[in-house]
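Feature request, filed as a ticket because there's no other form

It would be nice if the structure record came with a short human-readable summary line next to the tokens. Right now we just get the raw output. Example of a typical job, pasted below so the devs can see what we mean:
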Amino acid sequence: MDWKKLLKKIPRRQYLRPNPPSKKEKTIGYLILTIVVMIGIAIVVSGRYYDQNLFRLNPKLLNETGGEKVVRVAGGERRGSRDGEPVGINNSESSKPSSNSNLFPETIPGWSRKGDVQRFTTDNLYDKVDGRENLYKSYEFKELLAADFYADGTANRFIQIELFDMTSPRSALGVFTAERPSSPTSANIGRESYVDTNGAFFWKGKYYVR
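Raw output as currently delivered:
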């Protein structure tokens, strides 16, 4: 067998660039390499010399008052307060008495209300329903009252009632329908209602209740 003829038949890799790079290409390559080296040197130098006061807390801010406090309550919602005011009241509008407050008695058979009735208006609704306030405002939202009731003798059983004053029955129905699931289970409360894994929901008159 003639091995020389056989080797000639085997394809060999051909160089795409038989000629060396041009002077222009070498210059561009050296320039890019120089820029990379300079960036690396700048990172090292900036890491050694930095402003220690850049992220230092300003002591004057610790003495300021009137800042909003945020506390977490049962159910995971967050409510804001200012300077010891009842939670959920953080402006002059929401501090006004509500005609709907009498709908939250201090006691009902087997249950007792804990704390004051909290009031939220269009100015601070986000403190209660952060991320969904625009839905309620689009249906003529007026105010939201919320209260916690605990079962007598059982601290682990509680229910949080949220009463939305939607100005008109049409708006109450609208927001109720917007939050209702596709296959609800009726609860036989109010005009229309349903129960879910985390509670009961219904509307009646101008009110939407959760």
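Something like this underneath would help us a lot:
The CA atoms of residues 20 and 26 lie 10 Å apart.
Residues 65-92 have pLDDT under 50 and may be disordered.
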